[in-house]
Amino acid sequence: MSQSLTISRPDDWHLHLRDGAMLKAVLPETARHFGRAIIMPNLVPPVVTGSDAAAYRDRIMAALPDGMGFEPLMTLYLTEDTDADDLAAAHASGLIKAVKLYPAGATTNSASGVANFDKVRGVLEKMAEIGLPLCVHGEVTDSDIDIFDREAVFIDRVLDPIRKATPGLRVVMEHITTKNGVDYVLANAFDLGATITVQHLILDRNDMLVGGMRPHYYCLPILKRAEHREALLSAATSGDARFFLGTDSAPHPTHAKEAECCSAGCFTAPNALSILAQTFEKAGALDKLEGFTSHHGPAFYGLPVNSDTLTLTKSDSATQFPARIDAGDDTVTVFDPGFPVYWDVT
Ligand SMILES: NC(=O)N[C@@H](CC(=O)O)C(=O)O
Ligand SMILES: [Zn+2]
Ligand SMILES: [Zn+2]
């Protein structure tokens, strides 16, 4: 028996496209399904200025296959030297839709991030004034804080003080992974939103560690206990507009994932929507999928919902996703949810 669901075209509110051959390889995987995406600026070197963002947007558009529609929503990478006027001009021209805060050393390519939060106070005040959202990788980097606690500690020690010191600053907690993150969003007003990834909705740390380590499930923030996954699933399927999809699809060459010290990130662009449909259906919340993938994000960012649609169909046989895609001389391994998925984009 087949079943189908037509929704407004989804957007991805947290996406890594990289550059060069990798960009060319992964961009069609997103553009096939998503109308727009918030493009993460953690290139090497990072996308710091308005002119960096304009040049990166041009490279993305040049890599887009003919006939595919896709709008990259550009971001700047916040550093301790970010120029508030350059950032305001990039926002005023419509070039950028957000600024990304990486605590220095928290994740992939975050070395140029912020170590001393006092140094970005002026920039954050400017962002509050002009209504430019701050997207936050919310983990402390202190070596004495356990990796599984780094998100919760960040909320108390960094995020809450920043928000209190900067009234009116709109913040997106990127890729939340804990009940603490969900509760913090719920306890605040609608100037605070959160993106949630596919992997954090379906996996917990046991899936990554029991019976052998699975490097393709290693991403940051790291998968947590089952009770946290359950809180994320409740939030995503609740219909609360503060929670929306950010896949954090983060391609790395297969050899860098299957390495002695594996890179952090899951490449979910090809099958994110199929897995989500299955996950929402299992939770008895298929009617909440469209809000999560297509309505809540535009509402937070003050953008229109996409005018075209996407149809998902469920069939009796499991959907076959490619195991990997080619990217120049490398391959990128496609995320395997670990269970059969019967939904596919048609
Ligand atoms: N999520 C990840 O594990 N990796 C991301 C960086 C990030 O979003 O933190 C990447 O750029 O590879
Ligand atoms: Zn991150
Ligand atoms: Zn990311």
TrEMBL record:
<keyword id="KW-0862">Zinc</keyword>
<feature type="binding site">
    <location>
        <position position="16"/>
    </location>
    <ligand>
        <name>Zn(2+) 1</name>
    </ligand>
</feature>
<feature type="binding site">
    <location>
        <begin position="16"/>
        <end position="18"/>
    </location>
    <ligand>
        <name>substrate</name>
    </ligand>
</feature>
<feature type="binding site">
    <location>
        <position position="248"/>
    </location>
    <ligand>
        <name>Zn(2+) 1</name>
    </ligand>
</feature>
<feature type="binding site">
    <location>
        <position position="42"/>
    </location>
    <ligand>
        <name>substrate</name>
    </ligand>
</feature>
<feature type="binding site" description="via carbamate group">
    <location>
        <position position="100"/>
    </location>
    <ligand>
        <name>Zn(2+) 1</name>
    </ligand>
</feature>
<keyword id="KW-0479">Metal-binding</keyword>
<keyword id="KW-0665">Pyrimidine biosynthesis</keyword>
<dbReference type="InterPro" id="IPR004721">
    <property type="entry name" value="DHOdimr"/>
</dbReference>
<feature type="binding site">
    <location>
        <position position="252"/>
    </location>
    <ligand>
        <name>substrate</name>
    </ligand>
</feature>
<feature type="binding site">
    <location>
        <position position="264"/>
    </location>
    <ligand>
        <name>substrate</name>
    </ligand>
</feature>
<feature type="binding site">
    <location>
        <position position="137"/>
    </location>
    <ligand>
        <name>substrate</name>
    </ligand>
</feature>
<comment type="subunit">
    <text>Homodimer.</text>
</comment>
<feature type="binding site">
    <location>
        <position position="175"/>
    </location>
    <ligand>
        <name>Zn(2+) 2</name>
    </ligand>
</feature>
<dbReference type="GO" id="GO:0004151">
    <property type="term" value="F:dihydroorotase activity"/>
</dbReference>
<comment type="function">
    <text>Catalyzes the reversible cyclization of carbamoyl aspartate to dihydroorotate.</text>
</comment>
<feature type="binding site">
    <location>
        <position position="137"/>
    </location>
    <ligand>
        <name>Zn(2+) 2</name>
    </ligand>
</feature>
<dbReference type="InterPro" id="IPR032466">
    <property type="entry name" value="Metal_Hydrolase"/>
</dbReference>
<dbReference type="Pfam" id="PF01979">
    <property type="entry name" value="Amidohydro_1"/>
</dbReference>
<feature type="binding site" description="via carbamate group">
    <location>
        <position position="100"/>
    </location>
    <ligand>
        <name>Zn(2+) 2</name>
    </ligand>
</feature>
<feature type="domain" description="Amidohydrolase-related">
    <location>
        <begin position="12"/>
        <end position="303"/>
    </location>
</feature>
<dbReference type="InterPro" id="IPR002195">
    <property type="entry name" value="Dihydroorotase_CS"/>
</dbReference>
<comment type="pathway">
    <text>Pyrimidine metabolism; UMP biosynthesis via de novo pathway; (S)-dihydroorotate from bicarbonate: step 3/3.</text>
</comment>
<dbReference type="GO" id="GO:0008270">
    <property type="term" value="F:zinc ion binding"/>
</dbReference>
<dbReference type="GO" id="GO:0006207">
    <property type="term" value="P:'de novo' pyrimidine nucleobase biosynthetic process"/>
</dbReference>
<dbReference type="GO" id="GO:0005829">
    <property type="term" value="C:cytosol"/>
</dbReference>
<feature type="active site">
    <location>
        <position position="248"/>
    </location>
</feature>
<comment type="similarity">
    <text>Belongs to the metallo-dependent hydrolases superfamily. DHOase family. Class II DHOase subfamily.</text>
</comment>
<protein>
    <recommendedName>
        <fullName>Dihydroorotase</fullName>
        <ecNumber>3.5.2.3</ecNumber>
    </recommendedName>
</protein>
<feature type="binding site">
    <location>
        <position position="14"/>
    </location>
    <ligand>
        <name>Zn(2+) 1</name>
    </ligand>
</feature>
<keyword id="KW-0378">Hydrolase</keyword>
<dbReference type="GO" id="GO:0044205">
    <property type="term" value="P:'de novo' UMP biosynthetic process"/>
</dbReference>
<feature type="binding site">
    <location>
        <position position="220"/>
    </location>
    <ligand>
        <name>substrate</name>
    </ligand>
</feature>
<feature type="modified residue" description="N6-carboxylysine">
    <location>
        <position position="100"/>
    </location>
</feature>
<dbReference type="InterPro" id="IPR006680">
    <property type="entry name" value="Amidohydro-rel"/>
</dbReference>
